[in-house]
Amino acid sequence: MAPQILTLDALAARVPDGAVVAVPPDFSGVALAATLALIARGVRGLHLVGVPSTGFQGDWLVGAGCVVTIEAAAVTIGEYGPAPRFTAAMKAGAIRMIDGTCPAIHAGLQAAEKGLPFMPLRGIIGSDLAVHRDDWKLGANPFADDDPILMIRAIRPDIALFHAAKADRAGNVWIGVRRELMLMAHAARQTLVTVEEIVEYDLLADDATAAGTIPALYVTAIAEARHGMKPLGLRRLYGPDDAALRRYVEMARTEDGFRAWLDGGLPCPRAAE
Amino acid sequence: MAPQILTLDALAARVPDGAVVAVPPDFSGVALAATLALIARGVRGLHLVGVPSTGFQGDWLVGAGCVVTIEAAAVTIGEYGPAPRFTAAMKAGAIRMIDGTCPAIHAGLQAAEKGLPFMPLRGIIGSDLAVHRDDWKLGANPFADDDPILMIRAIRPDIALFHAAKADRAGNVWIGVRRELMLMAHAARQTLVTVEEIVEYDLLADDATAAGTIPALYVTAIAEARHGMKPLGLRRLYGPDDAALRRYVEMARTEDGFRAWLDGGLPCPRAAE
Amino acid sequence: MSVPTCQPEELLIATVATMLDGLGHIAVGAASPIPGAAALLARARGNGRPAISILGAVDENAFTDGGKELFDCAAEGRIDAFFLGGGQIDGEANINLVGIGNPRQPKVRFPGSFGSAYLYFLVPRVILFREEHSPRVLVSRVDYISAPGWSAPNVYRPGGPYALVTGRCVFAWQKETHRFRLASVHPGHTVDELRAETGFDYDLPDTVPATVLPDAATLSLMRGRVAGEIARTYPGFAARLWNVAAAA
Amino acid sequence: MSVPTCQPEELLIATVATMLDGLGHIAVGAASPIPGAAALLARARGNGRPAISILGAVDENAFTDGGKELFDCAAEGRIDAFFLGGGQIDGEANINLVGIGNPRQPKVRFPGSFGSAYLYFLVPRVILFREEHSPRVLVSRVDYISAPGWSAPNVYRPGGPYALVTGRCVFAWQKETHRFRLASVHPGHTVDELRAETGFDYDLPDTVPATVLPDAATLSLMRGRVAGEIARTYPGFAARLWNVAAAA
C-alpha cells in the first residue's frame, strides 16, 4: 500500500493504454520528463483530462499519437501561440475534444474527491458547451423557486500524473500552494508523481511542510526526475527555457518537424512507434 | 479593504449581538482569549456554528448567557466529560440546539465557499437529524435511477472567529494544516482572527509558508493574543493546561461555580452583565 | 511493575485488533483509546499496515486538507474501518448520540452525532464499541436515531455495522436479517448474564465460545510498542493501564 | 530612451484602468498583459486598491487553495472585475473561444473556453478585451457560444459584460436591450471606419466622443511603477513597450 519509489521508465510503465489521465496546466506541476518516457514507451489511447487545461504536455502527447480524447477547458501554450499538434489534430478530426470550462472540471474532480456522483455549478446555462454533454444535466436549486442550476457528473480519473518539488521516503509529496495537484490525487484512482528530489526527512513531521503536502495515502508511486518539468519552469525553483519552447513551437508546425523534434528530444533510444 | 490590526477588545467589539459565528473544535484553532473578551463585553444572542463541533469555547459562551442557538455536530470537551454549561442549558431548554453531522456542516460551508445554494451529501437518510430541518432536502442523483441523496443548504456565517499561530502585517494568516479554518474564512462574510504573533515578513512570499496561509483577501481583522488559545493547547506550540481545564469542569458544574470561575478568569474588570 | 495476566481493556484491545488485521486504512475518532490501541496493535503486527488516522491528534494523523478530509476519504472508499459508540444502541444497530427524552429539552444530553450519520453509511467495517453493557445503553429502541443501523435497498450505503464490542461480549452484525448474533462472551461473563443486561433481542447460537484471550506475544507487543505509541495521544490511558509514558 | 507621446497600448491600458478605479479586487487571466497593466495602474493610483490576482502568475497572485479558488472567490462576490476575450464576439456579447466550423473538425480551432462560461455569469464587471477590431472577430453571430452575453431572467447571473474595448474603440454594454452602444472612438479612428470594421449591429449616439488620452501623470505612473511591476509577469511585453526589466 505504501507508495513505491520507481525509475522514470517504471513509473511511465504504470500508465496503461487507454487510461483516463488527469494532468495539470503549464503553470502548475507538469511531469514533462515522465511524458517523454510515456511517449518513448509508445502509450496509446489516452483520455487526457486537463485540470483545467493542458499545454505543452498535451501537445506532445497528441503529436506522438498517444491521445484519443482530451477533456479540458483549453489546450493552451499561452504566449507561444496556438498549440501546434493539437490544432492540427483537431482540424484533421484525429482526436476527440470534450470542451469544458475550468470550474466544471474542478467540480467534477471535487465530486470524485468527495465520493459524490455530481456537484451543482453556477453559470454555463445557455453555452454551447452544454450541448451533447450527457455528463452535465440541468437541475434545480431545491431551496428556491425557478432557479435552474447545472449538475456536473463526477470525474474520476484512472491516473493523476504530475510533477512536484519534493517527496519523502514514505511517499508524501510536497506541492506547496498548487492545491489542484492535491485535488487530482484525491480524485484519481492512482497517483503517479515525479519530483525534483526525494528528501530524507518526514514532510508531515513539521506543520510548515505538512501544510503543502499530499499524504502518502493518496500516492501510488514516485520517481525522482531532477528538472522533470523542463523546458517549462517550476515556480520559484527554475524558470522556463524560452528558447527550447520556441524551438518546439517552430518545429512542431508540421508533422515531420514534430517527429524530428521528438527524435532529438526523447530520453532514450526507443522510438515512439 | 486590507485587514485591520486591532486590540483584542476592539476585535471582540466587531462581533455584534445576534451574529452567526463559526468556530472550530478544540483540536483546531480556538480563539479563547477573544472569547473571554467577548464575554466581558457582554455579547448576546449568538448563533454559534461549530465547524463541525465546539468545546470549551461554546460551553463558556453558553454559561455566560451569550448564546441562543448552537448548530453543530457535537458540543464536546472530550475526555473531560460532558460540557457542563451546555448540558445544563439543554436540560433547562435555555438554548436551541440544531443537531447536525460533521460532513453536513463542512458541506454547508463549502457550498457558501463556492457561492452555491446547496451541496449534495451521502448518508444521513433515515437519521432523526433530518427531521425538522428545512435546510436539508431529499433530492436525487440525476445520473442514476432511484438514487436518493440529501441536499444541504449553504451555511454562510456572519463571522468566522478563530486563533492561529501567526499573521503578517498585510493580514495574511498562517494556519498550517488546519484547513477548516480556511474553509471558515472563505465561507464567512467577515473573518476575525487572533494570532500568537504578527511577523514582519510576507507569509505569501515563500511557498513554504504560503501553502498554509489564508490570504488577507478573506481576513477582516486581526489581533495579537499570545497564548490566545490557552488553556487549550495549540498543536506543536504549547500543550493544554490540564489543571486549568479540570478546574473549569469542576467549577462549571453549577451556575454559581461557573460565575465564580468567570469572575476569576475574565481578562479585565468589566463584568459579563 | 506488576501487570495482571490480562486486564479487561487488554482483552478488548486484542479482540478489536483481530477485526482490523489485514485492512489498509483505519480511522479512529477522538477520545477512543481502546479502538486506537487496537488499531496500533494491528499495525504493529501487520508491518505498518493498516495505516491509521487518529482524528484530532497531532501525531498519527496524516490528513492535510482540514476537517472535511476524513469524510471525503471515507466516501472515496479509502477508509476500511471506523468506530462508533452510542449513548444508546439498539438491536437494529441504530445508535443515539444525541440524548434521551425530548431533543429540545432532553432528560439526558449526549455530546452529539459527530460524523456518525455519514460514516456509518460509507465505511465498510464500522465497529460499534461501548464498554458499558447494560439495559440502559443496549436498549430495545433508541430514543433518537443519530445514525440508522441499516437502510432501504435504494439508499447508497456501501458501509455499515460489522460488530458490537462491549465490556461483556462481542455481537456480530447480520446484514441480511438486521439483527445481532452473540459471537463470543468475555471470560468471567455468562450467556444468562448477557440476556439480563441487554435490552434488545439478538440471535443466540446453541454454543457461544468464550472471547479468545490474547497470547503472550500479543500482550508483549501491546505492553511494549503499542503502549508507547498510544501514550502520545492518550497519556492518561497509557499511564493508568501500563504505567508508561509516550514513546519518542 | 525615446517614447512616443502615447503608444496605442498605453491608450488601451489607461482606458481599461478607468473602468477599474475604485473596485476592491480584480482578477486577470493568463496571457493578458494589457488588462494586467490596466489593473496595476488602477492599483498604483488607488493606494493599493483594487487588489489584483493574476492567474497562473507566481507574483501578483495571493491564491493558496489551488485552481478552484478563483472560481469560488468569484461566486462569493469577492471579485469585482475580470477580462474575457474571444476568437469571435457578437453584438449580443456572446463570445466564442472554441472555434469556427464543426466543433468536431473545425476550420479554425481556438484554445478553449477556459472559465468564461462561469465567470461571465458571476463577475459583476466583465470587460471584453480584444485588440483586433475586424469583421472577422466582431461578427453578427458567433459560430459557437462559449459563454452567452445575457441570460433568461430566471438564470442566476449577478455578472455579465460591462464594455468591449478594442484597438479602435470602446463599446458600452446595455444590459436592458442586450446591445452594445459605441461609447468612444480612439484617436486616429472614425465612426465610419468602425461601421465597416464591425460585423455586428450596435447603437450609435448622435455624437461619439474620442477616447480620452492618458494625461502626463498617468503616463508617468504607467511607464515607471506599472512597467516595472508588469515586467515581473510579462517581461517580453514590458521590454517591447517600455524597454524595462522587472522591478525587484
Can you describe this structure?
The complex is a heterotetramer, with two copies of chain A (273 residues) and two copies of chain C (248 residues). By secondary structure, chain A is α/β, with parallel strands linked by helices. Chain A has two domains: 4-100 and 155-262, Glutaconate Coenzyme A-transferase (3-Layer(aba) Sandwich); 103-153, no CATH class. Chain A has helices at 8-12, 32-41, 56-63, 84-91, 102-113, 180-187, 207-210, 242-251, 255-265; strands at 4-6, 20-23, 46-50, 53-54, 67-72, 74-75, 96-99, 118-121, 136-140, 148-153, 159-168, 173-174, 190-199, 213-214, 221-224. In chain A, strands 1, 2, 3, 5, 7, 11, 12, 13, 14 and 15 form a ten-stranded mixed β-sheet that branches. Chain A has a three-stranded antiparallel β-sheet with strand order 8-10-9, with helices on one face. Residues 268-273 of chain A have low confidence and may be disordered. Chain C is of the alpha/beta class. Chain C has a domain at 1-84 and 213-243. Chain C has seven helices and twelve strands. Chain C has helices at residues 8-18, 33-45, 69-75, 116-122, 191-197, 216-233, 235-242; strands spanning 25-28, 51-54, 81-84, 88-90, 95-96, 99-100, 108-109, 125-130, 138-139, 161-166, 169-174, 179-185. In chain C, strands 3-8-10-11-12 form a five-stranded mixed β-sheet, sandwiched between helices. Chain C has a three-stranded mixed β-sheet with strand order 5-4-9, with no helix packed on it. In chain C, strands 1-2 form a two-stranded parallel sheet. In chain C, strand 6 and strand 7 form a beta hairpin. The radius of gyration of chain C is 18 Å and the shape is globular. Chains in contact: A-B, A-C, A-D, B-C, B-D. Chains A and D meet through strand 6, helix 4, strand 7, helix 5 and helix 6 of A and helix 3 and helix 4 of D.
